[in-house]
Design a protein that fits this description.
This protein is α/β, with parallel strands linked by helices. The chain is built from ten helices and 17 strands. β16, α10 and β17 form a beta-alpha-beta unit.
């Protein structure tokens, strides 16, 4: 089967690899019908994640179940499914408490030996371990593009907005207008904020966010904290959502929030970033929440929201390409020439 394989810094090759197959009784074999190129894939592409060279890439995907192991109960051959970007067992100490992202057996697709040694989703087929608690059935009438982001960036955007504790009438600032930031804007609006600001440096992303109803703040042209405070009576916003993971973005998210506010951080940091401002947090009575998304807890309700027309995650797709074009897709996405790219085998 064909798969997009990481060959070293900024090198992706679509090549033949051994056919995916069932290894354990809780596995499902899924024929991939659509996969996505994600911002977190760039951490690998840019050479920042060890243990990934020679492994298949990608973790966002939908497909059709081709085969299941004897202990899989929820799915059968022919079912259309969307996958979480990580696997979870569903029955450990953390899973039974609803914290699937802390599962003792967790591992992510496309991260090689660094995290789980699972196959990549930018392939023709993928083996899904722990299928009953990793996959979710796609509702009838929903297409692949509507469903695919439920397993990663849409769930992450909702997780970020929910943990920001947005209340009706609040002001919100989303730091970063990449795919996760755009999903955070979309999901934040479900909670009834009066205004949502978005901070970025890429004009096309800010324009797209403005079309979603957000107020754009271009960090290349103005100091974002000062600009947003001017528009909020000098106080700042009630809630901020950080979707980048670099120090300047985290600092902006903290500085733009008014006293008593909440910061929700879902951007992926490469390492410890700066000194945590404990005194400032204490003096301003701020709440800080961080973490990677608890996807399995959100997949079914988000599919329902998409089916009801409350969310349109497919609207951010800017480029539709073939799996054979994966190398070009990565170059485009890394150069910020695309909002979101999906690949079809």
């Amino acid at each position: 089967m064909k798969s997009a394989v990481y060959r070293g810094e900024k090198q992706v090759e679509v090549t033949d690899v051994p056919m995916a197959s069932l290894s354990n009784p809780t596995d499902a074999l899924v024929k991939v019908t659509l996969s996505g190129v994600c911002g977190s894939d760039l951490h690998i592409y840019e050479g920042r994640i060890p243990g990934t060279e020679g492994w298949g890439m990608g973790h966002e995907f939908v497909g059709v179940v081709e085969d299941v192991g004897p202990e899989v109960r929820r799915f059968k051959k022919g079912d259309r499914v969307v996958s979480s970007f990580f696997v979870a067992c569903g029955h450990c100490h953390y899973c039974i408490r609803g914290w699937f992202n802390q599962c003792v057996q967790r591992g992510a697709f496309g991260y090689g030996e660094f995290f789980g040694a699972l196959g990549g989703a930018q392939s023709e087929y993928v083996t899904v371990p722990l299928a009953d608690s990793t996959l979710e059935a796609i509702p009838d009438g929903m297409n692949d593009e509507q469903a695919i982001f439920v397993g990663d960036i849409l769930a992450t955007g909702f997780f970020a907005a929910e943990r920001a504790e947005i209340k009706p009438g609040d002001t919100v600032a989303v730091i970063g207008a990449g795919p996760v930031g755009l999903m955070a804007i979309m999901c934040a609006q479900l909670f009834g904020p009066a205004r949502v600001f978005v901070v970025d440096m890429v004009d096309s992303r800010l324009e797209f966010a403005q079309g979603m109803g957000a107020i754009p703040v271009n960090a290349k042209e103005t100091h974002p904290v000062e600009a947003i405070k001017r528009d909020t009576g000098g106080f700042g916003v009630d809630r901020s959502i950080e979707c980048v993971g670099v120090l300047t973005a985290v600092e902006t998210a903290m500085q733009v929030v008014k006293g008593g506010g909440t910061i929700s951080m879902v951007g992926i940091p490469n390492h410890s970033i700066g000194d945590f401002p404990y005194l400032d947090m204490w003096q301003r009575a701020l709440t800080f929440r961080a973490g990677w998304c608890n996807v399995q807890a959100y997949m079914r309700p988000l599919l329902d929201l998409v089916a009801a027309g409350r969310l349109q995650p497919e609207s951010i797709i800017s480029h539709r390409m073939k799996l054979d074009q994966a190398a070009a897709a990565y170059r485009m996405f890394d150069a910020r020439e695309a909002t979101k790219i999906v690949l079809r085998p």
